[in-house]
TrEMBL record:
Keywords, ordered alphabetically: ATP-binding, Isomerase, Lyase, Metal-binding, Multifunctional enzyme, NAD, NADP, Nucleotide-binding, Potassium
Taxonomy, superkingdom: Bacteria
Annotated function: Bifunctional enzyme that catalyzes the epimerization of the S- and R-forms of NAD(P)HX and the dehydration of the S-form of NAD(P)HX at the expense of ADP, which is converted to AMP. This allows the repair of both epimers of NAD(P)HX, a damaged form of NAD(P)H that is a result of enzymatic or heat-dependent hydration. Catalyzes the dehydration of the S-form of NAD(P)HX at the expense of ADP, which is converted to AMP. Together with NAD(P)HX epimerase, which catalyzes the epimerization of the S- and R-forms, the enzyme allows the repair of both epimers of NAD(P)HX, a damaged form of NAD(P)H that is a result of enzymatic or heat-dependent hydration.
Keyword Ligase: no
Gene: nnrD
Organism: Xylanibacter muris
UniProt signal peptide: none
Protein name: Bifunctional NAD(P)H-hydrate repair enzyme
InterPro entries the UniProt entry points to: Carbohydrate_kinase_pred_CS, CARKD, Nnr, Ribokinase-like, YjeF_N_dom, YjeF_N_dom_sf
Domain YjeF N-terminal: 9-219
Similarity comment: family membership: Belongs to the NnrE/AIBP family.
Reaction equations catalysed: (6S)-NADHX + ADP = AMP + phosphate + NADH + H(+); (6R)-NADPHX = (6S)-NADPHX; (6S)-NADPHX + ADP = AMP + phosphate + NADPH + H(+); (6R)-NADHX = (6S)-NADHX
Length: 504
């Protein structure tokens, strides 16, 4: 699913209206019917409804929904805020239709003074003040109204977006002036702001309503942001050649695990095998030898000369991919070995965890990273490398520009992990769940992506398939075990089921 900007949404509406053929007002009617249906599915017509409509098309939707709810027998009270004496054309038409239908008995057009109604616990508020057209934070009377609604015990359904939330950049928005919805009914496509954890309290539950915007136009519209869908992943699964042998299924090298963090190396190595690598060699401090050999007998263990830390860069000639960083430590000798390793590696690289923390400690080295490197930071690791960000939007913007500047692949991990490609595109991953917020989950991802690279997937594909597969394995594990008890090892155990599902 593409994520469109508000300007693109307007263009798509226009294209749909010009080509379908459907008139603008009829598209609003279609959207409003879908919104009304979603509301009536959850709330009976015994529920008192209070609708707040703004002056634009979001308000137009709200007025049409008010009429439809009233026709369905809901007792509906409507406030239309027309402070600047200007309504969008479709909003004005829906105001006329609402008055004409005579079903809504309680309709107030607010032009100056506003006496807010009592909002009780059993009341449903429909928030149609502003949607995708909002271009600056709410202030004045609208901000007061939002605070009033948020402070009430009423349930709130937002049309398209919680009013006050800007579709993309909310870095300098005033959080107190954004509606906190229980349910957001968004039209056609998710908005960029929905991808960020700090906006979750405003959105509540999210439902995406299909309003049949022209598919042709959506396909033809270039979007910077995309959310992965299963049908984009299935074609990436490579069929195994019946004559395959371990020598042509990819030889992965993992450099991981210092004293006390050997588990990270084990998790990455197991995940690497489960993701289909033909051979996995793990380079690790001598101390980890026995533990590694016992835990993953399938792996070749190559021992560093040091007992407790990685200090010795490896010749990558014989390997198809390198994954480096899980549990590596950040000591001086390890840091020096890391940069030497990154410089001399002549295969695709995934750098994670301490590899990134080391780069964060020595930011000048970041400029020397080889082109095409994959980095998989969680937000804290990213900030160590790039400085603090005020919010997720700012962090993502920095990741986009860093990926372009370094010609690197930056996979910013989170609920919706965001893969930033060297050409500026961003791909969000929808799989995964909160059960994966547990130590070692990231090491598993590193192992998976390293395996896919070793198997010959290009960087972008390895990241896309890798993050989707990782999240899906986590979802399947959570289905069986529940989120509370999920451990990183369970994600590994469910990689086979995830592969099977995607290969069906
Ligand atoms: N394809 C779609 O997604 C469709 C969208 N429609 C609706 O149209 C909405 C977008 O409509 P509009 O573009 O008219 O935008 P909105 O209705 O979201 O808001 C635009 C109005 O708000 C004003 N405004 C912007 N920022 C403000 C601020 N901070 N304080 C006060 N006023 C502010 C603008 O000057 C304009 O009058 C969507 O959110 C959706 O509800 C539907 O009607 C039909 C199809
Ligand atoms: N709430 C969540 N929803 C979806 N995925 C999650 C969630 N929490 C964690 N994950 C995934 O789990 C992984 C955690 O990685 P990371 O923080 O590096 O863990 P660790 O350092 O312990 O190995 C990431 O791939 C992330 O996307
Ligand atoms: K709204």
């Amino acid at each position: 699913m593409k994520i469109f900007t508000s300007a693109q949404i307007r263009e798509l509406d226009k294209y749909t209206i010009d080509n379908e053929p459907v008139k603008s007002i009829d598209l609003m009617e279609r959207a409003s019917r879908a919104i009304t249906r979603a509301i009536t599915e959850e709330w009976s017509n015994e529920t008192p409804v209070v609708v707040f409509a703004g002056p634009g098309n979001n308000g137009g939707d709200a007025l049409a929904v008010s009429r439809m709810l009233a026709e369905a027998g809901y007792k509906t009270t409507v406030y239309l805020f027309n402070i600047s004496s200007h309504l969008s054309e479709d909003c004005a038409t829906n105001k006329a239709r609402l008055i004409e239908s005579k079903k809504v008995r309680d309709f107030t057009e607010v032009t100056l003074e506003f006496d807010p109604p009592k909002l009780e616990a059993g009341t449903l508020v429909v928030d149609g003040l502003f949607g995708a057209g909002l271009n600056k934070p709410l202030a004045g009377g609208f901000a007061s109204l939002v605070k009033y609604i948020n402070a009430s015990p009423a349930k709130v359904v937002s049309i398209d977006m919680p009013s006050g939330l800007i579709p993309e950049d909310n870095t300098y928005n005033v959080r107190a002036n954004i509606i906190r919805a229980d349910l957001t009914l968004t039209l056609q496509n998710k908005k960029l702001a929905f991808m960020f954890p700090e906006n979750q309290p405003f959105i509540g539950r999210l439902k995406v309503l299909d309003i049949r915007i022209s598919q042709e136009a959506m396909d033809a519209t270039e979007a910077q942001y995309t959310i992965l869908e299963e049908n984009m992943i299935r074609p990436l699964i490579k069929k195994r050649n019946p004559f395959a042998h371990k020598g042509n299924m990819g030889h992965a090298l993992l450099i991981a695990g210092n004293y006390g963090m050997g588990g990270a190396a084990i998790l990455a190595t197991k995940a690497c095998f489960r993701a289909g690598a033909g051979k996995v060699t793990v380079h690790t401090p001598r101390y980890n030898n026995v533990m590694m050999q016992i835990s993953v007998p399938e792996a070749v263990v190559q021992l560093d000369k040091e007992e407790t830390a990685f200090t010795e860069p490896v010749d990558t000639e014989d390997f198809d991919a390198l994954g480096i960083g899980p549990g590596l430590g950040q000591s001086e000798p390890t840091s020096i070995a890391l940069i030497a390793q990154l410089r001399r590696a002549n295969c695709p690289i995934v750098a994670d965890a301490d590899a990134l923390n080391i780069l964060g400690n020595r930011r000048a080295w970041i400029q020397q990273l080889p082109k095409g490197i994959i980095m998989t930071p969680h937000p804290k690791e990213f900030d160590r490398m790039n400085g603090n960000s005020a919010d997720s939007y700012e962090r993502l913007s920095k990741a986009v520009s860093t990926a372009k500047h370094l010609q690197a692949y930056i996979l910013l991990k989170g609920h919706y992990s965001a893969l930033c490609l060297p050409d500026g595109h961003v791909i969000f991953n929808p799989t995964g769940n909160a059960g994966m917020a547990t130590a070692g989950s990231g090491d598993v991802l590193t192992g998976i992506i390293t395996a896919l690279l070793a198997r010959g997937y290009k960087q972008a594909e390895a990241c896309i398939l890798g993050m989707y597969l990782h999240g899906l394995a986590g979802d399947l594990a959570a289905k069986k075990l529940g989120m509370e008890s999920l451990m990183a090892g369970d994600i590994i155990e469910h990689i086979p089921a995830a592969f099977n599902y995607l290969s069906e």
